[in-house]
Amino acid sequence: MHSQRLPRFSRWILVILVISLLLYAAVRWLALASQTNSFQWIGTRVDRVETSEKLVALTFDDGPRGKVTQDILATLNRYQVKATFFLVGRQIKQFPLLTQQLWQSGHQLANHSFQHRAMDDEDWQRYGWELSDTDALIRQSGYQGEIHFRAPMGKKRLLLPLQLAWRGQAHILWDVNPHDYQGTAPDIMVQTVLNKVKPGSIVLLHDRDNTLAALPGMIEGLKAKGYRLVTVDQLMAAAQH
Ligand SMILES: [Zn+2]
């Protein structure tokens, strides 16, 4: 039997070529999957917590924003419920006192970047300073708790999760979104939240007037369904492993 064989050198080129192609396909797949909200290749990603306890975390993004944030804070305090505020660094600079009032009322503070620019351009250096500067501003307000992160618009690819894992910060997303940023009417927002909430849910909200208007109905409705409104950390502590 005589079989034709490739020279040793050519065989190695073939092997390297196949491995490179497989690697390329794997990275492409990882990069595409990483753009979705349901997958993150590294680090801690939380969009809801597995628990049978009727707990829910309301989260408010993009503040502090002056009067509307002040009014949201007053409403939460009036109902004696706790929430989590994902703050933007440059907003903290504008409203340092309000930032302090938020945690002094027992609410949780978290990092929502410095500029609120999408973090899907794989700019490692920018992610670094936006995260550090915002963490520093939150600390300057006197806040002592752990500082979690939420990406602007929830957008990420490969490098943001890597940076978060490197810094030991959890990426907190959501499982209930009443789309308040699209100007949804308050009563529709309340209905959406009450229909979609489950034990362990995280609700995405923003410091906006329609959200402020929806808040009493949302809190009363959740309470009527037997829910306790807690911070993200309190929710995570109730997770069943
Ligand atoms: Zn945002």
Summarize this structure as a short list of keywords or feature phrases.
two-stranded parallel ribbon; TIM Barrel; elongated; binds zinc ion; alpha/beta; 12% strand; 241 residues; 5-stranded parallel β-sheet
Describe this structure in words.
- This protein is α/β, with parallel strands linked by helices and 241 residues long.
- It has a single domain (45-237), classed as Glycoside hydrolase/deacetylase (TIM Barrel, Alpha-Beta Barrel).
- Helices cover 47% and strands 12% of the residues.
- The chain contains nine helices and seven strands.
- The strands form two sheets. Strands 2, 3, 4, 6 and 7 form a five-stranded parallel beta sheet that branches. A two-stranded parallel ribbon has the order 1-5.
- Strand 2, helix 2 (67-78) and strand 3 (84-87) form a beta-alpha-beta unit.
- The longest helix is centred in the first third of the chain and has 27 residues, at 8-34.
- The radius of gyration is 22 Å and the shape is elongated.
- The mean pLDDT is 95.
- Bound molecules: zinc ion (ZN).
- Zinc ion binds at residues 61-62, 112, 116, 152.
